Amino acid sequence: MSKIRALVAGNWKMNGLLQTLDEARAVNTALRSGGQAERVDVMICPPAPLIHPLAQSVGDGPMQVGAQDCHAQASGAHTGDIAAEMLADAGAHAVIVGHSERRADHGEDDATVAAKAAAAHRAGLTAIICVGETREERDAGRTMAVVEAQVRGSLPAGITAANTVLAYEPVWAIGTGLTPSEADVAEVHAGLRALLVTLAGDEGRGMRLLYGGSVKPANAAALMAVPDVNGALVGGASLKAGDLLGIVGAYD
Ligand code: PGA
């Protein structure tokens, strides 16, 4: 089995205006002149109104453009929602589904997340499916049980190494500056890899498994070196070109 190509994906959440795209353009320019793009895929998932202008300005890359959510249906009477087909039309390559902030703020359950991931596949997008335990669940020793149940419920039929990325994001590590120990990340990622192989065989063996939650330039190299960590989903540190490039630098 060839080595899994890493992915560093930035999730801007509800941050950024048109002028913030200068940071993304700076990353794209640096990737063009540096050698990192030969080793790692780099993606930014901006708020929906910025997807098209970002896709236009990065042109043929190497930066990829993603979205943060989609509706399960392809069209219809769903005011305010966005179909995966529309994201693809705007220039997105991928869409995050099941982020813990959407699970918490919008009551999305595993079945909803699976339907959204299936919609992403239908539209030709890579689904970046997020799972992760809360502080209470970790303290109760339930981390593996919680994330395995989320994976079983949130992955749709037909997952492949190309169309799906799984992101492990402990809820308590998101935006807090806290991270699990490398040993804890290794344990969860090993368990998730075994489950992916059970669910999808060789496709599960080749699927990218990202770690997310307070990834910064200072901790990226150590976290990215953990076995079965194939990249990062980065929130706050993806808004500044220097920070995102610092994280990508873990693959130098
Ligand atoms: P953070 O967010 O890097 O700001 O902790 C990660 C995420 O929510 O994807």
Fold topology:
Layout: E1 6-11, H1 21-33, E2 40-45, H2 51-58, E3 64-67, H3 84-90, E4 94-97, H4 100-105, H5 110-122, E5 126-131, H6 135-139, H7 143-154, E6 164-168, H8 182-206, E7 208-212, H9 217-224, E8 231-234, H10 241-248
Parallel strand pairs: 1-2, 1-8, 2-3, 3-4, 4-5, 5-6, 6-7, 7-8
Helix pairs in contact: 1-2, 1-10, 5-7, 7-8, 9-10
The protein binds 2-phosphoglycolic acid.
2-phosphoglycolic acid binds next to β8.
Short description:
With 252 residues, the chain is an alpha/beta fold.
Based on secondary structure, the structural category is alpha/beta
Instruction: Say how many strands there are.
Output: 8
Order of helices and strands, N to C? EHEHEHEHHEHHEHEHEH
Shape: globular
Return Rg in Å.
Answer: 17 Å
Overall pLDDT level? 97
Put simply, the count of helices is 10
Label this structure with key terms.
252 residues, eight-stranded parallel barrel, 10 helices, binds 2-phosphoglycolic acid
